[in-house]
Design a protein that fits this description.
The protein is of the alpha/beta class and 306 residues long. It contains twelve helices and eight strands. The protein has helices spanning 3-10, 12-26, 34-46, 51-68, 76-88, 113-126, 141-153, 167-181, 197-214, 232-244, 263-271, 292-300; strands spanning 101-106, 131-136, 157-159, 185-190, 220-227, 249-253, 275-279, 287-289. An eight-stranded mixed β-sheet has the order 3-2-4-1-5-6-7-8, with helices on both faces. The longest helix is centred in the N-terminal third of the chain and has 18 residues, at 51-68.
């Protein structure tokens, strides 16, 4: 299965539910008027796009309708695809040009954080990069064990300490190891506690100080892993983590298991945080770099759907 096919298949539930309803609605109109836009906005909100983002989308479609003199309601779908693509563009590229570069991975427990790290490590290794994993989620023994399994599966080195160790110390050891072993990328797992924001903020600040001191010129990405099935709750998680640390991007997992793919738009539009990866399945290669054009096209493409 090709890259576009994977994304298209992963968005099937969202496409069938949200875009399918929009298509059906457009077929009931013979002209473009405010009633059409009211129904369109309502369907977008129901599809977890969010109120503010739904209004923004409708306003941009209105503008395109006026600019292009469009009168056929069937053309709205094409304009929607254009607007969605335009809104999602910007910031999706990973900035990992130094050797080593650092990726800090954060997120609440249960979103697929460790699995995401394993899949990222496998992707980078397949691209010829030497990857080192840092088991800095030391508050859960299971997290260290899971990361060890992924390190073995993706054939990457791992640096770990005992459960309860200082996460910043693990990151320090990982940086030292990366320098001596010539690693290209350090991927650090971090604890996923959202209920105690001060503790989380202090811990991440300490980790960041270690990185800034030991690798002052290194490129760094801070990626928040989110479960797409949580819908609007994902937006709330972004807000909380954004307060605690500087997030450079989102990894959205489990898109294939939900009709709430519209959450991608809400996150980018309301919080100005780009999506860097999307998870569209359980396989090792089902974590894909986010491509706004492919995403938009797949969202609106019903060809050969059964």
């Amino acid at each position: 299965m090709g890259l576009f096919s994977k994304i298209k298949e992963g968005l099937k539930k969202t496409r069938d539910s949200v875009i399918g309803q929009i298509d059906s609605m457009l077929n009931t109109f013979t002209r473009i008027d405010e009633d059409l836009f009211e129904e369109l906005e309502e369907l977008l909100v129901m599809g977890d796009v969010g109120v503010e983002t739904s209004q923004t989308i409708c306003n941009r479609v209105r503008l395109k309708v006026r600019e292009k003199g469009i009168t056929d309601p069937a053309e709205i779908r094409r304009l929607l695809e254009e607007v969605v693509c335009e809104m999602l563009k910007g910031g999706q590229e990973l900035n990992l040009n130094t050797k080593p570069s650092v990726i800090l991975v954060i997120g609440v427990n249960g979103v697929g954080k460790t699995t995401t790290i394993g899949k990222m490590a496998n992707r980078f290794r397949s691209e010829g990069k030497k990857v080192l994993l840092a088991a800095a989620d030391t508050f859960r023994a299971a997290a260290i064990e899971q990361l060890e399994i992924w390190a073995e599966r993706s054939q990457c080195d791992i640096i770990k300490q005992n459960e309860g160790s200082d996460p910043a110390a693990v990151v320090f050891d990982s940086i030292s190891a990366a320098k001596s072993r010539g690693a290209d990328i350090i991927i650090a797992d971090t604890a996923g506690r959202l209920h105690n924001k001060k503790h989380l903020m202090d811990e991440l600040a300490k980790i960041n100080r270690i990185i800034d001191r030991e690798l002052p010129d290194a490129d760094k990405e801070v990626l928040l892993v989110l479960d797409a099935t949580t819908g609007q709750n994902a937006v709330s998680q972004v807000e909380h983590f954004k307060e605690a640390t500087g997030i450079t991007g989102i990894v959205l997992t489990k898109l294939d298991g939900t009709a709430k793919g519209g959450i991608v738009l809400a996150i980018k539009n309301t919080l100005d945080v780009p999506v860097k990866f999307i998870g569209v399945g359980e396989k090792l290669d089902d974590l894909q770099p986010f491509d706004p054009e492919a995403f938009s096209k797949a969202l609106f493409d019903f060809s050969e759907d059964k």
